[in-house]
Each structure stands twice: as C-alpha cells, then as structure tokens.
Amino acid sequence: MHAVAADGRDDAALLRAHLDGDQEAFGALVRRHQDRLWALALRTMGDREEAADALQDAMLSAYRAAERFRGDSAVTTWLHRIVVNACLDRIRRRQVRPTVPLAETDQHAAPAPDRDTALVVHDALRQLPPDQRVALVLVDLQGYSVADAAQVLGTAEGTIKSRCARGRARLAVLLGHLRNPTSGHNVGPVKGKEGAAHD
Amino acid sequence: MTERVDLDRLADFVGGALDGTPDADAVRDLIAGDAAWESAYADLVTADAAVRLDLAEYAAQDTRMPDDVADRLASVLRSPGSSSEKATARETRDTRRPASRTDATRPGASRRRARLYAGLSAVTAVALVAFGLLVGLPRVARDGIKSNSDTAGAPAPGGQAEAAVDTPQQISGRDYRRGDFGTLGNDANAPGAAAARSSERGGPNALGGAAEQPGFAGSTPPELQRLLTPTARAACIQAIQAIHGGIVRLVDYARFEGRPALVALLDGTRDGGAGSWVVVVGPDCGQPTGNADERYSGPIA
After folding, report:
1. Distance CA B253, CA B235 (A)
2. CATH number at residue A46
3. Which of A127, A138, B140, B280 could form a disulfide bond with B296, CB atoms 3.0-4.6 angstroms apart?
4. pLDDT-derived band of residue A38, with 50, 70 and 90 as boundaries?
5. Model-level ipTM above the cut of 0.90
6. Chain B neighbors of A118, CB-CB under 8 A
C-alpha cells in the first residue's frame, strides 16, 4: 500500500531492521509516512510549533518503544496512535501547566490555508474537546474508517461515532450552520472549553 | 409531555452511534412525536452535511511536512540520544535555521543552552543507571523507599533494559496539589526520615506498606497496579524522560488532585534546569505507545 521506491522493504521489515541495528531503517520508515503523521499532528494540535514538538516526542517514543510493537496492528496504525497520544499528552500539559510566557516566543501561524473556509474550520476545530477533535481528524480529515480510528485510539467504534457526531454538531454551531442552541440544547458553549470530557 | 432537545443525543443518533440500541428507538419516537425534536433533527441533518463539506475542503489543504520540520526530525532520529532531540520548536524558535548558529547569536541563548546541557537524555540516563554510575542516587530499600536493585541490569521481557526501575519508589498515599510538592522533595532528600514517619504514622511507605490516605488501604490504587511491575515502570520512566530529559530521583504512587497518579521527581530536566522538577502521570504512562499520560509538570515549589 505504501510506496517503497526509496526502500524496498515494507514497514514491518523496516521496524525489524531498526531493532536489528540498522541505523537508517527507522528514519526511512518515518520518511515514508511523514506527511500523514505531520497532518495528523498539525490538525490535532492546531499549532505548527506544537505539532512539530509533538511529532518529535512521538517519533522518539516510537524509536525507543519499537521492541514493544506487538504486530497486532499495522505499523502505520501504531505510529498514528503514538502521534495521537503525544498530541493528547501535550494538550493535557497545556491545560494543567502554569503558562510561562517566553519573551522570545514568536508565534508562527499554524498552517497557511489558501481559503477562508479552511482557516475558519481550523480555528473551530481547535475549540473542540480533544477527544472529539482527534476522532474527527482521523475520520473526516485523514480518511480513516471508524473501525481503523477505533484501533488507533484504542476505543470502541461506537465511541468514535459518538465523538465524531458530537464534534460535527459543535462545529456546526461554531461554523454558523446551526443556530446556537443555548436555550434547551445540551451543546453548551465550546469556546475555551477545550478538554471537557463528554464520554 | 415534551422532552428538552439534547443536541449530543441527537448528534449520536444522526451519526449512527445509537444504532442497535434502545435509545435509537427512543430518539426516533421523539423526532416523530415532538415538534421541537423534529425541527432540531432537520436542522442538524442539514448542518451536518454542511460541516462535512467544510471539513472536506479543509482536508484538501496541503499538509505536506515542511522541509524544516522534516530536517529537524531526521536530525533527531539520526542521533536520538544527543542534545539535538531537546531542540524543540519553542526552544529553537525558528526551525528553518540551524540550531547551532541560531542559539549562538541570539539573546537568551546561553540560558537555553544551559538548560539543554543540564538535561541528560533519557537514553543516557538509562544507560548510566544500568551501569550503576549514578553516584548519590539513594538506594534505600531498608529505609522505607524501595529500590529494585535486585532487577537492575537484568534484561526485561522483550529485551527492554530494566535500568530505569532502579529508581527509588514509595507509596505515600498523598493527594498532591499543584504547587504543593515540597514533601516529595523531603522524601527524596531524607528517605530515612520518610521511613520513620511511615512506621510511626502509616505515612510514606515502601511498596506494599500502609498509606495514610483513605481509599488506599495500604496498597497502590488499583489504577496504578500495572505500574508496579518493573517493566511497566521502566517504560513509564523512559516516556517521562523522553519528554523532559533529566534523571528521576523518586517516584511516588499517590494521587494528584484526587486522581490516582504516579508522581515523579526529576533533576536536570529541560524545563527545570538545575532545579528539581515534578512530573505527574496517569495510569497509562508508558503504555506500548511509549507516551507518558502526563497530567502535570512544574517546579517542585
């Protein structure tokens, strides 16, 4: 399924080679999937620098945890899971950690979308609870099936469906497709509510 | 009697999350018999389709990994134990420039460089522990803080080095709060005293001993049982060090703001520099994905 032009070995073979001491193998594996992993990190974090840091954390974790890969899922699923968890770790830390502004911080803009819609969607996604955001990123943006997303996130398919459905409903409000149902509906304000658990 | 429209429940129905459950029939009945639900359902179906279109447009954006990010990642993976792995985006600021030149010519570079050098990489730390070179690391099994010296250096199942499990541990039963970790520092600095308190008042104790907080009943919370195993604990410590660097001086099976948590005290982290740094992780720390399940990190005081 994946291009193997640069390295004829499949993902599992590259991982085995890494464990056997091939110093190029893990880098080759990452290069093969780097665009999708980057997209996952960027869309989950919503911030270019945070995404780069999360991806670096994730790939270092994968590098070191390779021997614990049990082979009960595709290597790419395993890598996606590690990236998701690294992103969620960072989001949790951001929520609980005292913010210490760095004087030299220079905020790069997160992606440079070509159209207004993309920018608006990007901002709206950042306001979703992380669990819903991750599910939507995997299913609606990365094209994962519900079953595959459930495997990546280690949860039930019904939970993925629920997170996606509720996430879309919140997005509908944020994007102006649905009247804010503050009187009577249970959606609640989502701005600034990142991290609220729903299930 | 009408029932207030619950958008989450309605969304679950629209998204198929209720399929095959009794609640799907209940929601269907509400839509059929309640004008408010019927209207909300129609609105949500229309809005859902619009959101999907927006998401599809957003998904079509170019998200290829930028060259600077790819270069940085490749560099880190070429030497994962080197200081280059600590060059996070926030520290290097402009990742399009080589970190060495950037840091050397910008204000604050020496501070950052000191922080980078202060943090031993996880790999280096693990290796040092494995070879017993960490002078001064308390090994006080008889003093109330358990040190797994019996497993140090022995290969773990799956080939994972168990060096990290040599870290002193305790079950304090405390419920830590952010900004209130001073007692952890005391335990690490004076393990004998901790043991004395433990024996007298059921306070901090070695693994398997009594604990003073209700609900612990003298044992680790069930949620943390997995982390009692040397392999799981080593994986967790590695995950913590992968993020923060440094050396773990003590781990405490405890709680953080009411929830079961492993509280680690580290020295030489990237964030804490020469000071002690606390990292609080949850029960999933070090799961096969190698992530930390982190709940909090900050200075000890």
Report:
1. 16
2. 1.10.1740.10
3. B280
4. very high
5. no
6. 57-58, 61
